[in-house]
Amino acid sequence: MRILNTLYYYRPHFSGLTVYTERLARALVSRGHQVTVLTSQYERSLPLVERIDGVDVRRVPVAFNVSKGPIMPTFLYRAARLIPEHDVLHLHVPQLEAAPLSLLGRAFGVPVVLTYHCDLLLPPSLLNVLANRISNLANLISIKTTNAIVVNSRDYAEESPLLSRRLEKIEIIPPPIEMPEPEPAFVQSMRERFKIAEGDPVIGMAARLATEKGVEVLAQAMPVVLKEMPGARVLFVGQYENVMGEEAYRLRLLPQIEALGDHWTFLGVLQQSEFAAFFKMCDVTVLPSLNSTESFGMVQVESMLSGTPVVASDIPGVRMPTQTTGMGLTFPPGDADKLAAALLQVLKNPENYTNDHASVMAQYSSDVVSDKYETLFAKIISSV
Q: Residue 377, by phi and psi: left (phi above 0), alpha (psi -120 to 50) or beta?
């Protein structure tokens, strides 16, 4: 099959949506399919055409950005040239161009699959209110015109104002998860590098420093945790500086984090081998997301595959991994006291939140997920 993916950001950009698309594309290439990614040239230093792990990446120049959305005047033109050359068009939303892209697919007789990663809920501002409304309209049109809609969980689809109207089109496919087993010596060297004393509880968080991630909730919960566990530390993995559209949030949050002193450490973006060791170093990880821009949280399953339990917000989709595996707890979103209580419960009783690697992998591995996508693509191609 010849599969055309469209999304705003692809490698070397790092986000959950990017990682999802990259893993799926790489897995489908390994199965003998031709995969093309049409995306933005969000940095001018990036080549317009590149081949990454067998995936044909085509980048479109960006004129300017509206909040986190790149404005690319030639994007639809480039898409119109590529769509007829492919067997299926795979849209990844949020993406304002999803509606015209879906209509182009219909016009060229190419079936369209839409993977609905999450709702778009930008921070409050006049411009962002307009962007949210346009995005919702684009999603509504694309949901109506696409052949199939993939979501991470039925829980999220049923709670979404848009997806709940089209449940007959919904296909449940979990995100592709990959997590190598790190060498014990490497884990130990990382513990020494970041001065993790034996016996000190380690709370991990892996995310961008972005408004919707709820980082401040963890910062507010830490003084309560430290009263009972004075040696507890937070290790924060991910981009925490120069996050697009989030500088004001970072400056607002920094005083809370700086007040925690050595109990909070930013590690930055890690390589895959370091990422695996990070989860092994942690006693628990946290996903305190605040709203439906988070629909699942792949880092939860990556943590679980490393044997590390999770405390996550009790919001649609995000609450599913702990429910299906038993490897953690949920708490009301935004409630720092409840987060602190959940963290202390897991840290004091880790044996209650374990599961075997194989059962978790059987649900979420890239092979399992790519097989489901391959079946779905073949089904809709044959029905057109």
A: alpha
Residue 307, by phi and psi: left (phi above 0), alpha (psi -120 to 50) or beta? left
Assess whether pLDDT exceeds 70 at residue 122: no
Q: Which token pair is 217?
A: 């909730």
H-helix or E-strand spanning residue 222: helix 215-228
| pLDDT value of position 132 | 65
What pLDDT sits at residue 217?
98
pLDDT in tens, 82-98: 999 999 999 998 888 99
Q: Which DSSP letter does residue 48 get?
A: S
Query: At which residue do the structure tokens 């949030």 appear?
Result: 249
| CA dihedral for 79, 119, 286, 179, sign (positive or negative) | negative
Instruction: List Cβ neighbours of 103 (8 Å cut-off, separation of 6 or more).
Output: 141, 145
C-alpha pair distances (Å), 82 with each of 28, 104, 110: 19, 11, 11
The helix/strand/coil state of 345 is helix
| DSSP strand pairing (69-71 vs 64-66) | antiparallel
- Which 3 state secondary structure label does DSSP give 299? helix
Q: Closest Cα to residue 203, out of 300, 285, 111? A: 285
- The residue behind tokens 């702990």 is 322
Rounded Cα distance, 198 and 117, in Å: 39
Tell me the pLDDT tens digit for each residue of 329-352. 999 999 999 999 999 999 999 999
Structure-derived torsion over alpha carbons of residues 274, 56, 101, 106, reported in degrees to the nearest 10: -130
Strand residue runs (E) in 212-282: 233-237, 264-268
5 and 23 in contact (C-beta within 8 Å)?
no
Distance CA 313, CA 276 (A): 23
Calculate ∠ Cα 103-48-27, nearest 5°.
70
What structural domains does the chain harbor? 2-176+365-383 (3.40.50.2000), 184-363 (3.40.50.2000)
In sequence order, the β-bridge partners of residue 2 are: 34
Q: How far apart are CA 85 and CA 351, in angstroms?
A: 53
